[in-house]
Amino acid sequence: MSDRTPRPVERQLPTEEAEDLLALVRDIAQREIRPTAAEEEDAGRFPRELFTLLSASGLLGLPYGSEYGGGEQPYEVYLQVLEELAAARLTVGLGVSVHTLACHALAGYGTKEQAADHLPAMLGGGLLGAYCLSEPASGSDAASLRTKAERDGDDWLITGTKAWITHGGVADFLTVLARTGAEGARGITAFLVPGDAPGLTAAPPERKMGMKGSPTAQLHFDGVRVPDSRRIGEEGQGFAVALSALDSGRLGIAACAVGVAGAALDEAVSYARERRQFGRPVADFQGLRFLLADMATQIEAGRALYLAAARLRDAGRPFSEQAAMAKLFCTDMAMRVTVDAVQVLGGYGYTMDFPVERYMREAKVLQIVEGTNQIQRLVIARHLAGPESR
C-alpha cells in the first residue's frame, strides 16, 4: 500500500473561508481517511465513525442554509470538498454526496415546519441519509417504479422494494419515492422515512467489484407507516423532486470521479519517478511521459467542466445539460485515467500492493450510478435536438 502524500491541487476558491475549509478537509483526509482506506476497503468495512467526524466538522451539510445548521457554501466549493474526500477514499466522498442528495428533497421542497423539525439533525446531528429511487425492475426508467404508498387516515403505508441503495441498512433516514397515483411520472410522491421504521428491512449488501466498504443493499418496505407530515412536496410532485436532486447529485459524482482520477495520477507519477529501468527512471521515457501528460490534461478538463456547471447552479441558472455533460465526461475520464495508471505501474499495478487497481475498480461504478452514461447522453441530446419522436 502506498503512503505517498498527494500533490496539492491548485484551486481558485471564491473566499478565504473556502480556502480554510479545503485546508481542513485535506487535513482530515490525510490524517483520518487515507491511511486506512485500502485495508478497510479490502475488509469491506463501512467507516461510520468517519461520517460522525465529518458531521461534527460541519461537512455533511455544506450546500444548505445556515439557519438549519448547513454550511451555506456554494456548490463550486462543496464539490471541491467532495473531490478531496473521494481522492482519499471513494466510499467517503460518494457517501457524502449521497447523504447530500438525500437531504435535497426536504431542503428544497419541504415546508418550513418540516425543515425546522428534521434538517438540523440531518445536516449536523450525526445522522446519515440514503436516497431510494431505483428498484429491481426500475433503474434507468425511474418513472416506472412500483413501490406504493397508500393512504390510511392521516398516514401512508409504503410497500415495495428499493434496490441499489447506498447506505442501505445503515442509514438513519431515507428519502423514498413511491407511487401514490396513476402510472407514470405524475403518480409519484416523495417521503422522508426513518431508517428504523417498523416494517423496513435491509437485504444483505451486494457483493461488488469495488467500493466494498460502502454498503449497497435492497430495502424492503412491508407496510411501513409514515405520517402525512413526512410527505415532501405535493402528491404527484415526487418525480420532479427526484430529477431536481439528480441534476445536483450528478455534479457530486463528477467531482468524485475527478478525485479518484487525481489519486491515480498521483500514484502513477510518483511510481514513474522512482521506478528505474535501463539505468534511469521510467518517467524519462517519452511514451510514458506523454501518457502522464494526457492523464493530467483530462483531469483538469473534467474539473473545469464540473466547476462551470456548479457556477451555473450557484447563479440560479439552468444547469441540467451541463450536469449531464460533467457526469458523462468526468466518469468516462476517470475510467481511462485509472486504466492508464495501472499500465504505468505494469505488473505492480495489477496487484493489491498499490492502490491503482482499486481506483480502476471504483471508477467503473461512477459510470453507472445516478444515471448511466448512456442516460447522460440521452439527456444531453434532448437539450440539443428535443425529445425523441414517438
Q: What topology emerges from the helices and strands here?
A:
Elements lengths: L15 H18 L3 H7 L4 H9 L18 H14 L1 H20 L2 H13 L4 E4 L15 E5 L2 E12 L6 E7 L8 E7 L5 E3 L13 E12 L3 E2 L5 H37 L1 E2 L2 E2 L4 H29 L5 H26 L10 H11 L6 H13 L5
Helix pairs in contact: 1-4, 4-5, 4-7, 5-6, 5-7, 7-8, 7-9, 7-10, 8-9, 9-10, 9-11
How many strand elements?
10
Low-confidence stretches: none
Sheet with most strands: 4 strands, mixed
- Separation, N- and C-terminal Cα atoms: 53 Å
Helix content: 40-55%
Shape label:
globular
Radius of gyration: 21 Å
What class, by secondary structure content?
alpha+beta
What is the count of DSSP helices, taking H or I runs of 4+ residues? 11
Q: What is the residue-averaged pLDDT?
A: 96
**Side-by-side strand order of the widest sheet:** 1-4-5-8
List SSEs in N-to-C order. HHHHHHEEEEEEEEHEEHHHH
**Beta-strand share of residues:** 5-15%
Describe what this molecule looks like in 3D.
The chain is α+β, with helices and mostly antiparallel strands and 390 residues long. Helix content is 51%, strand content 14%. It has 11 helices and 10 strands. It has helices at residues 16-33, 37-43, 48-56, 75-88, 90-109, 112-124, 238-274, 286-314, 320-345, 356-366, 373-385; strands spanning 129-132, 148-152, 155-166, 173-179, 188-194, 200-202, 216-227, 231-232, 276-277, 280-281. The strands form 3 sheets. It has a 4-stranded mixed β-sheet with strand order 1-4-5-8. The protein has a 4-stranded antiparallel β-sheet with strand order 2-3-7-6, with no helix packed on it. Strand 9 (276-277) and strand 10 (280-281) form a beta hairpin. It is globular and about 80 Å long. 49% of the residues are buried. The mean pLDDT is 96.
